């Protein structure tokens, strides 16, 4: 098991190809625990994680994305087709939902506050997803964060019987590819010191 957080951050890659092997229940629990233990705005924990191991259901979601690729702007069709391919191989997905607890609670205060609360929810959920991705790396699991799945929110919700707001689908499996790190921007170009 890798120990140093900086090493984990550096070695983590998006993994889009997996072995045909079930993930141990203990590992799935550790991923969910990492999400649960994440910080969140006002500790509202505005998230829900739907774990799907049913191969047929995952394939149905993959087909939804493929179908959608025919009616979207060029570029996005490729992303949807690629995501569909990834879903076809993954043994497990985690559909991440925004429960909107914060923005609904404070909606009576008006637009400005609702907007802030929505941002808080998105930031909190992104942080929880990041906890999952880093934990997956520690557990030597591969993970792909599929933001593009949101395009099919309605159809996915109908399929899995949800009503809330889909934020992402995470594909998880034992990696069968080990990609190079995509190029990053120079630190000097993305940061400024004000002294
Ligand atoms: C918000 C978000 C949405 C993403 N959506 C997708 C996606 O729909 N499909 C995909 O293949 N990768 C997706 N990714 C993964 C990125 O493409 C990937 O992180 C980036 O290319 C850098 O590669 P690395 O993760 O290996 O460092 C997403 C990542 C984030 C943070």
Task: Describe the fold and architecture.
- The protein is an alpha+beta fold and 195 residues long.
- It has one domain (12-180): NADH Oxidase.
- The chain has eight helices and four strands.
- The protein has a four-stranded antiparallel β-sheet, sandwiched between helices.
- α3 packs antiparallel against α4 (76-89) and α3 packs antiparallel against α7.
- The termini are far apart.
- 31% of the residues are buried.
- Flavin mononucleotide binds at residues 13-14, 16, 79, 82-83, 144-148, 182.
Strand arrangement across the biggest beta sheet: 1-2-4-3
User: How helical, in percent, are the residues?
Assistant: 40-55%
Low-confidence stretches: none
Give the overall shape, derived from the CA principal axes. globular
Keywords:
globular; alpha+beta; 4-stranded antiparallel β-sheet; NADH Oxidase; 195 residues; binds flavin mononucleotide
What are the SSEs and their pairings?
Layout: H1 5-11, H2 25-36, E1 47-52, H3 55-68, H4 76-89, E2 92-98, H5 101-105, H6 111-138, E3 142-146, H7 153-160, E4 165-173, H8 187-190
Antiparallel strand pairs: 1-2, 2-4, 3-4
Overview in brief:
The protein is an alpha+beta fold. It has 8 helices and 4 strands.
């Amino acid at each position: 098991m890798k120990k140093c957080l900086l090493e984990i951050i550096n070695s983590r890659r998006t993994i889009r190809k997996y072995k045909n092997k079930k993930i141990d229940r203990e590992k799935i629990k550790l991923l969910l625990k990492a999400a649960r233990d994440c910080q969140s705005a006002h500790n509202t924990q505005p998230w829900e994680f739907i774990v799907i191991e049913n191969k047929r259901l995952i394939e149905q979601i993959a087909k939804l994305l493929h179908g959608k690729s025919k009616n979207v702007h060029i570029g996005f069709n490729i992303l949807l087709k690629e995501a569909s391919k990834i879903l076809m191989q993954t043994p497990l997905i985690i559909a991440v939902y925004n429960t909107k607890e914060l923005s609904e609670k404070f909606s009576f205060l008006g637009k400005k506050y609702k907007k802030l609360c929505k941002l808080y929810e998105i930031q909190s959920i992104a942080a929880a997803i990041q906890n999952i991705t880093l934990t997956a790396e520690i557990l030597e699991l591969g993970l792909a964060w599929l933001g593009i799945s949101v395009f099919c929110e309605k159809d996915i919700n109908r399929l899995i019987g949800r009503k809330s707001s889909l934020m992402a689908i995470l594909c998880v499996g034992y990696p069968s590819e080990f990609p190079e790190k995509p190029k990053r921007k120079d630190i000097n170009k993305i940061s400024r010191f004000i002294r």
